[in-house]
Amino acid sequence: MPAPAQPPGPTAVDEDFTTPPQERGWTLAYLPAWSSRSAAAATARTAPDGLHLTLPADHPVWCPGDHEPPLRVSAAQSGSWSGPVGSTHGQQPFRTGQTVREEQPARWACTPRYGRVEVTCRATIGPGSMFSAWLVGVEDVPERSGELCLVEVFGDTLATDAAGTPTAALGSGVHPFRDPALREDFTAPRTGVDVAAWHTYAVEWWPDRATFAVDGVVTREVAQAPTYPMQLMLGVFDFPERPHGPGAPAVPELVVGRVRVTPG
To answer: Is the dihedral of CA 69, 40, 230, 196 positive or negative?
Structure first.
């Protein structure tokens, strides 16, 4: 049973996460249909500076024995739904024929279709961890699954230049997944962005193009875009099997200070 073609969530939001976002329709669990709301729950807290998503040592592996490579994740998403247990109706399946383990009621905190999306955040990551903020189709049908990635940074790309300035390989762009109308267009150039400091990552999204920016400065443009409602995903990830090395944070963290969505 598919989700509604036009999700009933707001298409505009100005969220500072200083109070529990679940009260406004956010889901603090990562793609829970493939696991469960309890097993996929984020380690999260709200504070005056926003939503803290963390991965303490006791945070469990997500979908253990099923997702490879193993990962741990604390995430928030502005939409969630699934079909009944045993069906293949769900969001962002990670393998062919994957079936729902726990049915998810439809929850829509914000599901824009075109406009400007801004995420202000900072992250503490190291080798073996990463963070990301992305828009993805609500997947009421499998083809409506394309992604606009505002930012994706792996901790093993963090470095300092000759002047001692922090740098990172800053990823952004389009992933088509199961959308035949899109093509892969994703890059991660090295930039002088210190991800541990506050930055605003944004995308301007129209039916046929998208423009990405950091702190108001355009970083790239692509001549394609999804044409259906999308939801926002915010997450910090850790890969237990990857080398973490000296100096890696004991607790990877993503702090989201603000999300602002303005309809186009």
So the answer is: negative
C-alpha 109/C-alpha 181 separation (Å) is: 27
- Residue holding tokens 């230049």? 161
Q: What pLDDT does 9 receive? A: 83
Mean pLDDT of 148-165: 96
Q: Are 178 and 142 in contact (CB under 8 A)?
A: yes
Copy the structure tokens of residue 201. Answer: 């990552």
Handedness of CA 88, 175, 135, 39 (dihedral sign): positive
Q: Any idea where the domains of the chain sit in the sequence?
A: 13-243+254-263
By CB atoms closer than 10 A (0-12, 13-18, 19+), residue 116 is middle
Confirm if 72 and 240 have CB atoms less than 8 A apart.
Answer: yes
Question: How much of the chain exceeds pLDDT 70, in percent?
Answer: 97
- 8 Å CB contact between 104 and 33: yes
The domain defined by 13-243+254-263 folds into Jelly Rolls (2.60.120)
